[in-house]
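SAMPLE LOG
Freezer: B-3
Tube label: C17
Construct: single chain, 332 aa
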Amino acid sequence: MMLPENRSFELSRQLLEGAIDIHVHATPHLPSSPRRLDPIEAAIEARDAGMRAIVLMDVFQMSNGIAWIVNRAVPDFTVYGGLILNTAYGGLNPRAVKTAIGYGDGARFISFGAHSTYYQASREGRIVDGKFTPLKDLYPEFRREEVDRSIRIPVEGPAGPELDEILSVISDHPRVFLNTGHVSPEEAIRLVELAGEYGIGNVLVATAVTQVASTDQLRYMARRGAFIEYTLGAYTHTTSIPKTHYYVELEYAADEEMTGEASGGIRKAAEQIRQVGTDHCILATDFGGYTLPAPVEGLREFIACLLDLGLPAGDIRKMVRTNPEQLLGLNL
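STRUCTURE (predicted):
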């Protein structure tokens, strides 16, 4: 592979201009999982780098409430938020979705769970005595409190009353996008198909799905109109460091890599992006933890890595600017 010309630190900074990071964890968190910066700091850093917006993700509450505050404190910039349907909100809870749509600056995304999907909760674990062991096998109470209450998406048959109501609410609000959350690839495919049936225009296949889905599965969902999310956080050294990402209990600290093995690195991501097509992909960070750089620097590093892997600057600009604008409905 020939390295592209004109690669430089300056170019990686220029590609941040007008960019939108759709996956920033700069909201309050547990003391056992410290944050790198607060949402006001994240907004100011992004604005000063020339970015257009950031989207705050919060596994504990509606981040559009925090966005409302930040947008009044930080001029000349926009922060968006939304709702992740974790067990803290009762899982598939239509009332929570309806509330989030109108709360603060209004939810711009509804995610079908992070740590509270059955696919993730049943597989979360860490290395114990040299072997990757699920938390449900280590702690019976974890199975009862989290796994048994987790979200499952039916891969066939009717959606069910709660899912039907949630999809209908999203469909009624064109500026709200559907985020698959940390479901299985098969469940993600079902959500993408249901989104088409319900007339939901903007869908994001979460990076947790991207990591484990096959390229053929990703290409299928892209052909159905979904954007495929790639975050630098999915390919960093911190994925194998136990953290309490969601659980108050310290003993539930888990590795993000739920197999205990490396995922293939950024080179694999770049190869998949070429196969799926840059028209269908979005780059983000999933940064905010204290073990990582600030999100702005994380996005610049992701851009720089992909430049080194031969992706043209125009394609990168599309994935950090044009496609996120479309996902957020900023072109409506």
